[in-house]
Structure formats: C-alpha cells, structure tokens
Design a protein that fits this description.
The complex is a heterodimer of chains A (123) and B (359). In chain A, 38% of the residues are buried. Chain A contains two helices and six strands, in the order βαββββαβ. Chain A has 123 residues and is α/β, with parallel strands linked by helices. By secondary structure, chain B is an alpha+beta fold. Chain B contains 13 helices and eight strands. In chain B, strands 1-2-3 form a three-stranded antiparallel beta sheet. Chain B has a three-stranded antiparallel beta sheet with strand order 6-7-8. In chain B, helix 2 runs antiparallel to helix 3 and helix 4 runs antiparallel to helix 10. The longest helix of chain B is centred in the N-terminal third of the chain and has 29 residues. Classes of the chains: A alpha/beta (123), B alpha+beta (359). The interface between A and B is medium-sized, with 30 and 36 residues.
C-alpha cells in the first residue's frame, strides 16, 4: 500500500538515490524493519512537492548497506540510529558514532526481534 | 589560527531546556564544528508499540512528546484509519482541527517564552507563559486535562465541543489575540532583541532544502512547505496559506512562529463557524493489515509515521520520524562559524524537542 515503492538490490541503491537528488527530491527519513527471519527491510523515503517516493532494500543481517550520507547529509543521523537500534552496518558513513549515537555500549541492538522465552509458573 | 578547545555544551546547561549535548569545537570565540550526541532520555517507545495493541498505542504515541501529543495521536490514528479504510465523520474532522491548532498555539507560546528567557527578557517570558494559560484553560474545558488530552481514537474523537464551550473558546481566543498584539512589538521592534536575532544563523533556501529542514525552520528560509495544505482532517475545507519568510535567520524563525499564532487563531475560528452537526466517531471492527505512511504538520514541522500491520491486534513496526530529528542536520551546519555566545539562541530557534527525537 506504500505509494511509489521501488524494490531495489543494494548495489543499485546509490545510483537511484543520485537520480532522485538530481531530480530535486528531499530526503525525509529511512525506516528499518526487522522481518523476523534474519532479514531486514530498509525503506528510504523521499519527498518532492508533497509526493513521497519510497525505495526498499532487503538485506540479510550480516550484509552491509552502502551509506547514502555523502549524497544526503541528513541521512547521517538516521543511518547511525538504525545502526544503534538494529545493528545493521553501513559502509562509508560520513560520521560514524560506532553505535553510541543513541544508546550505550552495553545495549546490543535493542530493536531487533528476539525469540520469545515463556516461563511457566513454578519453574 | 587560534587555540582550539572543545566545549561540551549540555545536556545539563542553564540555557538549554532540553537534554541535548553538543560537542563544540571552538577556535577562539568561533565555533568550527558541532557534533550532537543524543540518547539521554531514550525510552524505546517504538519497541513498546510492538507489544501493545493498536488502541493502547494511541497512549504510547501521545507520550512521545507532551507538547504536541494531539498531533502525534492524530498521525497515528490517520494511518490506522487509512489502512482499515475507515471514513471519519465530518464533525470529528473539524474537532481534530480545533484541538490540533490549540496545541500549535500553546507550543508556539511556550517557545516564544523560552526565546525571551534565552535573551534575558524575563518579563516577556512571563507574559508569554501567562498568555499560554489562556490556551491551557481551553484544553482543560474541552478535554478535561491540560497537556495530554487523549481525545483522539481510531475512527474519530472521544469528546464533543458543545455551543457553550465554543463560545468560551472564541472569547479566550479574542483575549489571546489582543495579548499577542501587545507583546508582538517587544519581539519585533526592540533594539536589543533585534541585535541578538537579526542576521544570526542564516540558512539559505537551498541549504534548508538539501538538509531536509521541516516546519517553521524551512518556512523561515523561504520554502513554502506546510503539510496542512494536503488537506488532511478538515484542513482542505479551510482557507489558509503557509506562513513564509525569506531571510532564513533567527529573526525570521521568530516572525514565522508569531504569524502562525495568528493563523492558528484564524483557523480555529473558521473551524468553529463551519463545523457541521453529526456523529463524532465511527465504530471500528477488525484489525489493520498492510503498510502505510501517515504525515501531519506538527508545531515543529512534518511528522512521519510508518506503520506496518499484519492483521492481528499488534503492529509489526511503528516508526516515528519527528521534526526535530529532521532539523538537527541543519543545526549542525548552522553552528559552523557562529560566535559561541549565539549558540543558545541558535539551538533554541530550531525549537528542539529531544523527547520527540529519541522517543
């Protein structure tokens, strides 16, 4: 139901973002979704004249995503936030907080879905 | 080249009302670089939203930020309504506009007071916050509480505003408008105030656009962007134009917010006069499925909600991008090359809300 959704491979991401920037799009934000099976969706949102364009890149947990922070400076903080909360690594981040932008070191990717452990009463 | 020093500005700093830390690299009295560090009040609300059901989430998102709680709930409810294909009754749409604009009024007054406080104008600060009480009284009269009013539900609103309360709103707004005109002169014409604001922290139109600025910050740099023109709730039936200034300095940002106060008063008057009779909510059955992006214009700017649902009572993912987060890159850029003494003023003019930023 997302409007203007493009599903891309991570290799094509930067190329597409450069095209959007040349077209005069504004970077809105990026969203990371844990799919629960070791894969992550990263959805980039761009806006021009109130029209949203979304780019979805699906990656495996151990894969690195090319950073777009050198194209849009505003992406630096979003990418650092995703790195902190989900443990997704970005390649060539403009400013790398090394996982300490929002959280302290002892919390390890707190937004990731973890297997539920149910403890019965009395055990 | 002068001597370089690093000053950790905040999180507990007398002029900074928010727990934001800026590491300022100084060369003599000039700021060369600013590195923000946040995370002092991170509460993990996005994660909490995965545990609570779709109705409880309204209360979760209202606590993202107290000052704009109504708009947060509005963005969330509109997203769920779009997913489920619910038609909200017309009267509820107008009621939503009234409360949303009341929230904008009290947020802007709070900010005006803080700005006056930052440049050391104590009595003006008190005046602004006293005027804000007029709005708080309206909130209390119409919703029962002063800040987090919890009137939004999925499918409409919880409370109605009857004729008597409408009269009370209009009376208080008339008083507020008068008071605003009285304090406006001190903000706009005072020599010392101008000295602190004019030409400080200039952000050009292009910079503002490239850095993804939103809200009054973008409008003060000449970008005509206001999501209310999309016509969500009842905004499509009201007559208004986005407030735009072109200088891009602290003074412009002040002017934008001052003019927006008058705009909000006008919008509430229009909404009260045009509000139709009828139901205030539709009954809702079932659970949402799919993904959607919902956007509203908060007092600070564009608020983006990404909602992913899977047909159960819990959401798969709720992502909240609040306006302060979008304005931080511009703040970092603006701080480069300004005087150290202007830093508090600059940080304040983006209207920082760190509780929003960290959720």
């Amino acid at each position: 139901m997302l409007q203007n959704l493009k599903e891309l491979q991570k290799e094509d991401l930067r190329k597409e973002v450069l095209v959007l920037k040349a077209d005069g799009y504004r970077f809105v934000t990026a969203t990371c979704v844990d799919l629960g099976d070791g894969r992550f969706d990263i959805i980039y949102h761009f806006d021009k004249d109130y029209q949203l364009t979304n780019i979805r890149v699906t990656i495996a947990a151990e894969e690195k995503v090319p950073s777009i922070s050198d194209i849009y400076f505003a992406a630096v903080f979003v990418e650092n936030e995703i790195k902190d909360l989900f443990g997704v690594e970005f390649e060539n981040l403009l400013i790398d907080y090394e996982g300490k932008f929002m959280i302290t070191e002892e919390l390890e990717s707190p937004m990731r879905k973890k297997p539920m452990v149910k403890v019965k009463k009395g055990e | 080249m002068g001597k370089r020093t690093i000053v950790p500005f905040g999180p507990q700093h007398p002029v900074l009302p928010e727990p934001l830390q800026l590491r300022l690299v100084l060369e003599d009295e000039k700021v060369v670089e600013a590195i923000p560090a946040i995370g002092y009040v991170h509460r993990g609300l996005e994660k909490l939203a995965e545990e609570k059901d779709i109705n409880q989430n309204i209360y979760v998102v209202e606590r993202v930020c107290g000052i704009c709680s109504f708009q947060q709930a509005l963005a969330y409810c509109q997203g769920i309504e779009e997913l489920m294909g619910i038609d909200v009754p017309d009267r509820a749409k107008y009621l939503r506009v009234i409360w949303a604009e009341l929230h904008r009024l009290h947020s802007h007054h709070l900010w005006l007071g803080l700005l006056a406080d930052a440049f050391g104008f104590e009595s003006l600060f008190m005046q602004c916050w006293r005027n804000r009480e007029l709005v708080m009284d309206l909130m209390e009269a119409t919703a029962g509480s002063r800040v987090i009013i919890s009137t939004n539900i999925i499918g409409g609103v919880r409370r109605d505003i009857d004729l008597e309360k409408q009269k009370f709103i209009l009376n208080n707004l008339a008083k507020l408008e008068e008071e605003l005109k009285r304090i406006e002169g001190s903000f706009l014409n005072d020599y010392t105030v101008k000295k602190r604001l004019v030409g400080v922290g200039v952000l050009t139109k292009q910079e503002a656009y490239e850095l993804g600025c939103v809200g009054p910050m973008a409008r003060a740099s000449g970008i005509k962007m206001d999501l209310r023109t999309l016509g969500y709730a009842a905004y499509g039936e009201l007559d208004f134009e986005p407030v735009v200034e072109n200088d891009g300095d602290c003074y412009s940002r002040l002017k934008v917010r001052l003019r927006e106060c008058y705009q909000s008063i006008d919008l509430i008057r229009q909404a009260v006069s045009k509000m139709p009779q009828g139901e205030i909510s539709t009954p809702v059955k079932g659970f949402p499925n799919g993904e959607v992006i919902s956007r509203v214009e908060q007092p600070r700017g564009e608020d983006v909600y990404y909602i992913k649902a899977n047909g159960t009572k819990n959401l798969e993912r709720l992502r909240i991008r609040t306006p302060t987060f979008a304005n931080i890159p511009a703040l970092v850029k603006m701080l480069q090359g300004v005087d150290f003494a202007d830093v508090p003023m600059l940080v304040l003019t983006i209207d920082p809300c760190i509780s929003c930023t960290e959720r």
